[in-house]
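Q: What residues go here?
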């Protein structure tokens, strides 16, 4: 036996409404038995809570690492400045200053970062240098 569309819709609607009413009743009964107010966000003094886990008071800062660029006779100064701007987010003025340190002193500090960030920046410099045909060396050392 097939129901007309209007009858089928009424039948489905009544089943859904009955289900919702019984679900609300069940929730009300459960909350009442547990001493929980109607809203889950409200505090109920009848319910005692206990903290099971403990927190560690000692939190150590992560180790920091200096990322260094090393001088060589082949990498252009322009490329070093470009690396400092793109990889290390340095301003053009800072980039020129660091590049001159690399050129004059043989080494320049690009920045100080956590281990993972330092490692990523060193690898990025090596990939970009090789792609552009330069032997630029970049290393990291614990601060």
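A:
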């Amino acid at each position: 036996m097939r129901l007309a569309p209007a009858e089928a819709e009424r039948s489905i609607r009544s089943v859904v409404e009955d289900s919702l009413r019984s679900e609300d009743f069940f929730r009300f009964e459960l909350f009442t038995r547990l001493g929980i107010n109607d809203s889950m966000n409200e505090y109920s003094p009848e319910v005692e809570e206990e903290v099971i886990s403990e927190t560690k008071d000692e939190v150590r800062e992560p180790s920091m690492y200096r990322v260094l660029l090393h001088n060589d006779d082949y990498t252009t100064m322009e490329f070093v400045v470009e690396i400092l701007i793109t990889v290390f987010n340095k301003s053009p003025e800072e980039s020129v200053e660091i590049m001159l340190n690399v050129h004059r002193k043989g080494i320049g500090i690009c920045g100080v970062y956590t281990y993972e960030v330092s490692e990523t920046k060193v690898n990025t410099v090596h990939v970009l240098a090789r792609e552009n045909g330069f032997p630029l060396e970049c290393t990291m050392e614990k601060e």
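A: Context that may help when evaluating the design: The beta strands are 64-70, 107-114, 137-142. The longest helix spans residues 5-34.
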